[in-house]
Design a protein that fits this description.
Distance between the termini of chain B: 9 Å
CATH class of the largest domain in chain A: Alpha Beta
Helix content of chain B: over 70%
Shape of chain A: globular
Number of domains of chain A: 2
CATH class of the largest domain in chain B: Mainly Alpha
Radius of gyration of chain B: 25 Å
Order of helices and strands of chain B: HHHHHHHHHHHHHHH
Helix content of chain A: 40-55%
Shape of chain B: flat
Largest interface: B-C, 120 and 114 residues
Largest sheet of chain A: 8 strands, mixed
CATH architecture of the largest domain in chain B: Orthogonal Bundle
CATH superfamily of the largest domain in chain B: MetI-like
Largest sheet of chain B: none
Structural class of chain B: mainly alpha
Oligomer: heterotrimer
Strand content of chain B: under 5%
Number of helices of chain B: 15
Chains: A alpha/beta, B mainly alpha, C mainly alpha
Number of domains of chain B: 2
């Protein structure tokens, strides 16, 4: 492993420096950030994992040493929130998580990046910040109009079926509406010991499209009126529907499934349907580990009485305001999301890039055709739709994380039979109001 | 021992000796003051403010000192967490006492084998709590658990215990008992040494059987130890954290969310430090009361000399 | 006034009632000879060893979870989801721990535990001695204070400590963590060493005073050497408690001073629970502690009850 590292470093030093002109003048003499140790932290996911492999290239280029920390999603968020809240200097580069982006940006815990981008000494001219989807840059922009994070993923929540052959055997088509979904699940549940449906337990992400589909919403009118609307009749109907999906068609322990467990379950063909982002769904196309490659099918999230509202998510890399190595941190971000690096990732099978040039590229579109499904097109359609209807505005609110947790707990309570939909949501509503008031919101 | 000191009050070397002891004691007292009383005072002060780190300057105010405590009384999640804590504590302490007592009685013998097994039984108690949590996470995850798979193989498939709200708390209780029963076992073993032989000899001469010997002679002797042991474990059970963190994260729903965990969530998930301080004060008050009770029961025999 | 306290007797005790009543009751000794008739030999053997057999059987049942973790550490990664008990053991799990932060966290754990033990002993031993030999008015209150310190839930201290450390710059440092550990280790040292010092007869010290020694000279020359085994046991207990801590390390460390128990949590990842790594790291983290326990098993109870058990 160390040998490979050295080889990679040597090769990279020769090759990469030519591609990244920003460091051309640093080649002569000492490396630009020699002796600097960068602490990078993000949650463990497909792109960060690829970045970890490419780290030697960055280290060879700049002479900096990178400590790369990638815990699980809930652990990462809790630690990052704590560290950022005290404006500490433990991390130089952090992941700006989609549900926390507004909270962190608008509390002044992140550094604005516009100056770094505009500075020709720090950023090569062709790095092109406008190549990133506007819809992906929007959640990373603060109320003051400055950009605080560079997106590395722009994904949409899509529906997937790992054993579509069972659906076809039952003589049904891919479910389009919420009623269709129930019909299909009833037909295929437990056939060949394959459970019908599961989704990752972050219900503040996976459930909300259904909430919208039934005509409900999280807040009355985000971002202006933040009064929560979790206990409206539509919300209750949506929660009842969704929780019953988990209860009737879910595998054992469905409400504790983490995203990786969901991916694993689909790869092994233990569960049929799920809703997930391409960040995970793209992995189902990995021929080496996926047993269900030949029976995969993807589709959009189901349409409900009020329409179809696919969820979208954007994560980005940012610099905490307390970091002591901001320039080196920017060098890292700029390298990690340069056209060369993102293209490399796309070629390796990465499924949810945020750069337009990558999304439009031939290689990406070709790689994302999995078992005949054009995953990329589906995602693009969903993202397009989201930007038109604006139903993701609820997420741009700085107090969303608290409500997110309430939704998680509420669905878990309903699905495990501990409370009825009405009780659970009324509780969530009351708690949300308390928490919002505690966070200083005037309701 | 103290006779030497009392006989010559006020004389030179007597006072010098007292001063010497004071110097020995002072560093500890100073350190303890700095690291326990000062933070506790800071905690108390913070609990009187709505301190939240999204707006640290603005929320550090004292205009309504009891705001957090009032909220606590109305907070259903907090009140439920107390009930959960009590359920967990009482069930696991009762189990620990039962298992510890049974094993102590069994292993109370003078043979090398028994001595070796007594040592081996200590292992669960000294393992790092996070490792215990991981061991039980493996056992409770149906995909990898040998127990679940064995049960499935014989045709008795069992659903995941930690994902089921009815059994989640019991699952944690079981893991906690596994971890801490050696404590009770050791304490009872030590107490069994103190049981005097004469009544036992006399009673068995009179024809008493083992159960009667236990019930009328042994048990009364070890009862005080059992009580102290139970109280110690009760106090320690308020700290339960790694098991819940790894196994259930307070769920499913909030059925395994104990007060300590709820405080952790409030403090370190959303930085509601004022509110979390109030929760911590409540737990601290409970610990204080129980510790005082332990002290009162006279275990503190350093005093009696 | 006791200075002769039987504090060093190991917790092996006499049996309450070992067997069915023999003609001549000898409850202190196990019968040495076997019954003369060979027919009842097997029955007698079983009866005699029933307790031992039951103990071993129970031991296997109780230790099963622990043993399962250890064997999982040696299993090849692909077989994790298989059911076979037979496999070719591999050190792959341990080797994979070498990349990344785990080794560093292991060293951090060692450093913090050692530092914490050293500090606690340095500050606590003189205090324990003073409390033993000096009867003063507020002894009871100090005792209660020390007990509460030992018993208080970590969350009560982490909030103020977290803020203070941010301000003092001790966040994510080994020294900072060692200081926090004093909250429980100092109490342990004070309580345990009191029992050991009580066992040292004052006559020896008084002889030294007559010879002109000061209080602490006598302590250093006479009392401490006599209490040395107790000191060693206390040191080991402090080490174990510091090593095992999870909560303080979780909150107060980030990347620099991260300790082994917290590093394990990093293996619970988004992309897949790396079971082999978890098992291997778990095995490594508990290894020193188990070894030490065997060494100090006699004093373990006293340490855990802060000296509350008389024996």
């Amino acid at each position: 492993m160390t040998q490979r590292r050295h080889l990679l470093q040597a090769a990279s030093a020769l090759g990469a420096s030519a591609l990244l002109p920003g460091f051309a003048h640093a080649q002569s003499g000492a490396k630009k950030f020699q002796g600097v140790t960068l602490n990078v932290s993000t949650f463990s996911a497909a792109y960060p994992k690829l970045l970890q492999q490419y780290l030697p290239e960055f280290e060879a280029l700049t002479g900096a040493k990178v400590n790369y920390d990638a815990p699980s999603f809930p652990v990462y968020n809790q630690r990052a929130d704590l560290e950022l809240s005290t404006k500490g200097s433990a991390y130089d580069v952090v992941n700006v998580t989609f549900i926390y982006s507004s909270r962190w940006i608008n509390s002044g815990w992140l550094t604005p990046l516009d100056d770094f981008i505009k500075n020709p000494n720090l950023t090569p001219a062709d790095w092109d910040v406008n190549d990133f989807l506007p819809g992906a840059r929007a959640p990373e922009t603060g109320r003051d109009g400055k950009l605080y994070g560079i997106p590395w993923t722009a994904e949409a929540l899509l529906s997937a079926s790992s054993r579509f052959d069972l659906v076809q055997q039952a003589g049904l088509a891919y479910p389009d509406t919420t009623d269709d979904l129930v019909k299909v699940l009833r037909a295929v549940n437990k056939k060949e010991r394959v459970a019908g449906f599961v989704s990752d337990s972050h219900y503040g992400w996976t459930f909300v499209p259904y909430l919208h589909a039934f005509g409900g919403d999280v807040f009355r009118k985000a971002p202006d009126d933040l009064y929560p609307t979790l206990d409206t009749p539509e919300a209750i109907a949506a929660a009842e529907y969704y929780a019953s999906l988990l209860r009737e068609f879910g595998p054992d322990g469905a409400i504790t499934y983490t995203p990786d467990q969901v991916t694993q379950a689909l790869k092994l063909g233990r569960v049929n349907f799920t809703d997930a982002g391409q960040l995970h769904l793209a992995q189902l196309g990995d021929a080496a580990t996926s047993k269900t490659l030949k029976t995969l099918k993807f589709g959009q999230v189901p349409k409900g009485p009020a329409g179809r509202f696919p969820g979208t998510a954007v994560h980005g890399l940012g610099i905490p305001v307390g970091s002591k190595n901001k320039e080196a941190a920017w060098a890292f971000i700029q390298w990690a999301l340069s056209k060369q690096t993102t293209r490399k990732a796309v070629l390796a099978g990465y499924g949810s890039p945020a750069r337009r040039s990558d999304i439009d590229s031939q290689e990406f579109r070709a790689k994302q055709v999995i078992n005949g499904n054009d995953l990329a097109q589906l995602a693009l359609d969903s993202i397009e739709q989201a930007s038109r209807t604006g139903h993701m505005k609820y997420r741009t609110v700085s107090v969303y994380p608290q409500v997110d947790q309430q939704l998680n707990k509420a669905i878990a309570l309903i699905a495990s039979g501990q409370a009825s939909a009405r009780q659970a949501l009324q509780q969530a509503q009351a708690q949300s109001i308390t928490e919002l008031k505690r966070a200083g919101q005037n309701l | 021992m103290s006779t030497t000191l009392i006989l010559h009050p006020g004389t030179g070397w007597e006072a010098a000796r007292r001063r010497a002891f004071l110097w020995g004691l002072l560093p500890s007292l100073a350190v303890l003051l700095a690291i326990t009383l000062v933070p506790a005072a800071a905690l108390l002060v913070a609990s009187f403010t709505p301190l939240s780190l999204t707006d640290a300057a603005g929320t550090f105010r004292f205009d309504d000192p009891l705001v957090n405590y009032r909220h606590l009384l109305e907070d259903e999640r907090f009140l439920r967490s107390i009930a959960t804590q009590l359920k967990l504590s009482v069930s696991s302490v009762a189990l620990q006492l039962a298992v510890g007592l049974a094993l102590a009685l069994l292993l109370n013998g003078r043979s090398r084998l028994l001595a070796a097994t007594r040592t081996a039984f200590l292992v669960p108690m000294v393992l790092p709590p996070i490792v215990v949590a991981l061991i039980w996470k493996i056992l409770y995850t149906p995909d990898v658990s040998p127990v679940h798979r064995a049960l499935e193989a014989v045709g008795l498939p069992v659903r995941s215990l930690i994902a089921n709200p009815d059994t989640a708390l019991w699952a944690i209780s079981l893991a906690d008992t596994w971890q801490w029963f050696p404590f009770t076992m050791l304490m009872v073993l030590a107490a069994l040494q103190m049981v005097p032989d004469e009544p036992l000899e006399a009673a068995s001469l009179d024809g008493a059987n083992r159960w009667q010997l236990f019930r009328y002679i042994v048990f009364p002797h070890i009862r005080p130890v059992l009580v102290v042991c139970g109280l110690f474990r009760l106090i320690d059970s308020f700290k339960a954290f790694p098991l819940i963190y790894v196994l259930t994260d307070g769920g499913p729903g909030s059925v395994t969310e104990v007060t300590n965990y709820y405080g952790f969530i409030q403090a370190f998930n959303f930085s509601y430090w004022g509110y979390a301080s109030a929760i911590a004060m409540v737990i601290l008050a409970g610990v204080f009361a129980l510790s005082w009770l332990v002290g009162r029961l006279g275990w503190n025999d350093h005093d009696k000399r | 006034m006791t200075s002769a306290n039987p504090t060093f007797s190991p917790p092996i005790s006499t049996p309450i009632s070992t067997h069915l009543p023999l003609p001549a009751p000898r409850p202190r000794a196990e019968p040495a000879s076997e019954p003369p008739l060979s027919g009842t030999r097997r029955a007698g053997w079983l009866r005699r060893h029933a307790r031992g057999l039951a103990a071993v059987a129970l031991l296997l049942v109780v230790m099963f979870p622990f043993l399962w973790l250890v064997q999982l550490a040696f299993k090849p990664g692909a077989d994790i989801f298989e059911d076979s008990l037979l496999f070719v053991p591999t050190l792959e799990g341990f080797r994979s721990l070498l990349q990344g932060n785990f080794l560093k966290s292991f060293w951090n754990s060692l450093a913090v535990s050692t530092l914490s033990t050293g500090l606690s002993l340095l500050i606590g031993v003189p205090a324990a001695y003073a409390l033993t030999r000096w009867q003063f008015k507020w002894r009871r209150h100090v005792a209660l204070w020390i007990l509460v310190t030992r018993m208080a839930p970590p969350i009560a201290f982490t909030i103020p400590f977290f803020l203070a450390y941010r301000w003092l710059g001790l966040q994510d440092t080994i020294l900072g963590l060692a200081i926090v550990y004093l909250t429980f280790n100092l109490a342990i040292v004070i309580w345990l060493m009191q029992t050991f010092f009580e066992a040292v007869p004052t006559a020896l010290e008084e002889a030294a005073y007559i010879d002109g020694c000061g209080v602490w000279q006598a302590f250093w020359r006479i009392t401490l050497p006599l209490a040395a085994p107790g000191l060693a046991a206390t040191a080991v207990l402090c080490f174990i408690f510091a090593w095992n801590d999870f909560f303080y390390a979780l909150i107060l460390t980030r990347t620099n001073a991260i300790t082994a128990p917290v590093a394990i949590v990093n293996f619970l990842q988004y992309e897949g629970w790396e079971w082999t790594k978890i098992a291997a790291s778990g095995t490594l983290v508990m290894f020193p502690v188990v070894i030490f326990t065997v060494l100090v098993r006699t004093y373990l109870v006293r340490g855990l009850t802060a000296g509350g058990v008389k024996d």
